[in-house]
TrEMBL record:
This is DUF742 domain-containing protein. Residues 24-33 have a biased composition (Basic and acidic residues). Pfam families: DUF742. Residues 1-33 are annotated as: Disordered. Residues 1-10 have a biased composition (Basic residues). It comes from Streptomyces caeni.
Length: 138
């Protein structure tokens, strides 16, 4: 019996690398500007809500049947307060698109925007000293 002949494997040539998408190739998705325009819908040129990255958004209602998939996802994840930056990251959408979606939901009274909770400033030192001296005199 003759042993089988081994075939030499030739290394396969890799295809040349293509252009890198604008988002750095994250998750294999290409960001399409037309898609983002469709997500934001037709705007009447009205003002956007004064929202920044640290504004907290909390849903005040469940998603209505007429909500877009992005709006429904936003309402579902905002059952507890989330910052706009977190919403943008969770939905993998740019901040500007999330701002437009939130503005529409604010107009429909489906979400509430809250200013971020800031730590209180320390009271004036002279006030603390006056309280301390008053307590010591008791």
């Amino acid at each position: 019996m003759t042993p089988p002949r081994r075939r030499r494997r030739h290394p396969q040539e890799d295809p040349p690398p293509g252009p890198v998408p604008a988002d750095g190739g994250k998750r294999g998705e290409e960001k399409n500007p037309e898609r983002l325009y469709i997500l934001t819908g037709v705007t009447d040129g009205g003002e956007r809500a004064p929202i920044d990255l640290v504004t907290l958004i909390v849903a005040s209602a469940d998603p209505p049947p007429t909500a877009t998939p992005e709006q429904a996802a936003l309402l579902r994840i905002c059952q507890a307060p989330l910052s706009v930056a977190e919403i943008s990251a969770y939905l993998s959408l740019p901040f500007s698109v999330v701002t437009v979606l939130i503005t529409d939901l604010l107009a429909a009274e489906l979400v509430q925007a809250r200013a971020p909770i800031a730590r209180q400033a320390m009271p004036d030192r002279s006030l603390l000293e006056a309280v301390m001296h008053g307590l010591q005199k008791l």
